[in-house]
Design a protein that fits this description.
6% helix, twelve-stranded mixed beta sheet, seven-stranded parallel beta sheet, elongated, mainly beta, single chain
Length: 693
């Protein structure tokens, strides 16, 4: 494949030591020169996919002389005897015409192993001399204009393992001896479809049997049997049905199962599934298949290695393993489809799955090689209870139609490559208990409709790019866990969570939440884990948290929280693995002037709250590092501690304005050197003067 053009130079015949010549997939034209056939060492000649024309070179003076059908036959000298070591001859996908000459077959008969003349314009009959090619393993004569009956001598190809003679005009029947070399469920049909039938591949194979084809007679507009042509590849009057093993044009459940097998490299699924290709084995006796009243209701192929090759690795490409066929949608009684952990499975989710009106469980999780979008047709499977597509490579957006699944109890599409936002139609999932969409590359704001899901117990949205506020969840009265860790959520800590008595886990770490923690968080009797670290929360820790007997983990570092730390937490030996016995309040949150990598003390090496170096300190409790602070920093801390956002506009004018010096903030006065020397802060009419202290 080098974009070569022009004709084949006769000088190639001078390369007497040439062993292999491969000029495939170029734009070479013209005929093959006779001088070319004087290469005594040539073993492989591959000229496929070019534009060569003319006859395949032969000795035109050759007259058919009788030959004896035995191993002692010694052909006379002809053109093709000039390449006495030739094992592979590939002239396919060109424009060669004329006939296959007996002398060519005679010349290559002692050595040839691969002969590919497919996709040309060859005519005439196949010479009986084909039977002399005793070493021939692969023969491809498909897509030519060869005709007549197949010679019986073709049955003498004792080494043949692969043969394709389809899409010609051969007549009669294949020799029984040749059919016998290819054992299989299709018999001779596996070589060439018999007269009156067709198959897109010209022969029965994994795609299905040869299907009857009526041939329309344009003169009398009547259907008559197709002419006696073998290996027909098309039929204008009939559509071929993939997987149709008996040629009746319809797929039953057994044929659909076999089609799944064929489309996912079933021969490499594993020993437990060896019966799948045998159409005679009852569908209900197949490994991984369950039936009710003789109807397929469950397919569980978790133990099958879908889309593997013989070496146990991935098949490689969709051409070798197309993936799940759309005909799956014809299994009208299917209730469970579980292909989870099929890491080699290729292809997309068939849109035809929307036809499965009784499907309750669809599990394609950990199918890491599947791709494409989640089809909107999934919203038609209104019987669905569990939709698990997690840990795969699906793209696109969450279809709005998911909101139609009113019986859905669990949806898990985490760890995918989606984009877009959560559709507001999720509010229609009136039976939903678990929404698991972590690390799915979703963004945008959280729809307020989430707060209306009264059956929702587990809301897992961590590791996305959600922005905006957490919606009011007070109507989600069954909620036990909310995990929005590592997003970009803003606004106040959702006070509605404090009213949900069932809640056990609140994980809102690594966001941009502001405001204070609700005082009534302590009213949650089942709360066991509270992690709001690395936000912008201010104020103090509600003392009521120390009264929750179920509380086991509390993490609040990385905020703007100040003391005091409630004694009820410092003495609670159940929280944070009981480290309060050793570290006291430090096990809850590091005090001012100290730091820790996680904001509190642990019993691991170097896990205690370390004191800052001289000249450095921390601004808030639970700091992860120390630094030198300016008077501006301390004023900012003072503003937060005194709930400055609640001051009047005049009192907080200029505070924290990055474009103003702190000396310009309302109520702050400085000396000539810019050092704060006074602070007017009205609390019951009082003011503070640093010179009096």
């Amino acid at each position: 494949s080098n974009r070569l053009t022009g004709t084949m130079p006769s000088e190639l015949g001078w390369m007497r030591d040439l062993v292999e010549l491969n000029l495939s997939k170029n734009s070479l034209v013209g005929t093959l020169p006779d001088d070319f056939f004087s290469l005594p060492r040539l073993e492989s000649l591959i000229l496929s996919w070019n534009g060569f024309t003319g006859d395949i070179p032969s000795d035109m003076n050759y007259e058919d002389d009788p030959f004896e059908d035995d191993d002692e036959y010694d052909p006379p000298d002809y053109i093709w005897t000039g390449v006495p070591r030739l094992e592979c001859l590939a002239l396919d996908h060109n424009h060669f015409e004329g006939t296959i000459r007996p002398d060519m077959l005679l010349g290559v008969s002692p050595t040839i192993k691969v002969l590919d003349l497919s996709d040309n314009e060859l005519t005439g009959t196949l010479p009986a001399q084909i039977g002399l090619l005793k070493k021939l393993g692969k023969l491809n004569l498909s897509y030519n204009d060869l005709d007549g009956p197949l010679p019986t001598e073709i049955g003498e190809l004792s080494s043949i393992v692969k043969i394709n003679m389809t899409a010609n005009a051969f007549t009669g029947t294949p020799p029984e001896k040749l059919c016998g070399m290819f054992t299989g469920i299709f018999g001779c049909d596996g070589l060439l479809c018999p007269p009156g039938t067709f198959h897109p591949d010209g022969a029965a194979n994994e795609r299905g049997a040869c299907r009857p084809c009526p041939d329309k007679d344009d003169d009398d507009d009547e259907y008559i049997p197709l002419s006696a042509v073998l290996g027909r590849t098309n039929c204008d009057a009939v559509e071929f049905v993939d997987g149709d093993m008996n040629g009746d044009g319809h797929l039953d459940e057994r044929e659909i199962l076999r089609l799944i097998y064929a489309a996912t490299n079933g021969e490499n699924w594993g020993d437990a599934f060896m019966d799948w290709p045998d159409i005679k084995v009852d569908k209900c006796n197949l490994a991984g298949v369950n039936c009710k009243d003789t109807l397929v209701t469950k397919i569980d192929l978790r133990e099958a290695t879908l889309c593997a090759n013989a070496a146990g690795n991935q098949a490689g490409s969709p051409e070798r393993c197309p993936g799940l066929p759309g005909e799956l949608g014809l299994l009208a009684h299917l209730e469970v489809l579980d292909l989870s952990r099929s890491t080699f499975l290729l292809g997309t989710i068939p849109t035809e799955l929307g036809l499965l009106k009784t499907l309750r469980v669809l599990d394609l999780s950990s199918c890491t090689s599947m791709e494409g979008s989640i089809p909107s047709e999934i919203g038609q499977v209104t019987s669905l209870r569990v939709l698990n597509l997690a840990e795969s490579s699906f793209t696109g957006t969450l279809p709005d139609t998911i909101g139609n699944l009113r019986m859905l109890e669990k949806i898990n599409i985490g760890l995918n490559k989606l984009h877009g936002t959560l559709p507001s139609t999720l509010g229609g999932l009136e039976s939903i208990r678990e929404i698991l969409l972590s690390r799915a590359h979703l963004g945008g704001t959280l729809p307020s409709e989430l707060g209306n899901l009264r059956s929702l117990e587990n809301l897992e949205l961590y590791g996305n790019d959600f922005i905006g506020t957490i919606p009011d969840m007070s109507n989600a009265s069954a909620l036990k866990r909310i995990d929005c860790f590592n997003n970009k959520l803003t606004g106040q800590f959702p006070s509605s969570l404090a009213s949900i008595s069932q809640i056990q886990i609140v994980h809102l770490k690594n966001n941009r939440l502001t405001g204070t923690l609700p005082e009534n968080l302590g009213n949650l009797p089942l709360l066991s884990w509270l992690d709001v670290s690395n936000n912008n929360l201010v104020g103090t820790i509600p003392p009521s948290l120390g009264t929750i007997t179920s509380l086991r983990d509390i993490r609040m570092g990385g905020n703007k929280i100040h003391g005091p730390v409630p004694e009820s937490l410092c003495s609670n030996t159940r929280v944070n693995a009981g480290r309060t016995r050793q570290f006291g309040c430090d096990a809850v949150i590091c005090p001012l002037g100290t730091f820790s990598g996680i904001g509190y003390a642990t019993d691991s090496d170097g896990g205690e709250c370390k004191e800052c170096l001289e000249g450095e300190t921390t601004q808030y409790l639970g700091s992860r590092l120390c630094r030198t602070f300016t008077q501006r920093d301390f004023l900012s801390m003072f503003f937060d501690a005194m709930s400055g956002e609640e001051w009047s506009d005049d009192q907080k004018k200029g505070w924290k304005d990055e474009n103003l010096s702190e000396c310009e903030w309302a109520g702050v006065s400085c000396d000539e050197e810019g050092k704060v020397d006074g602070l007017e802060f009205p609390i019951s009419g009082s003011s503070w003067d640093p010179n009096t202290y």
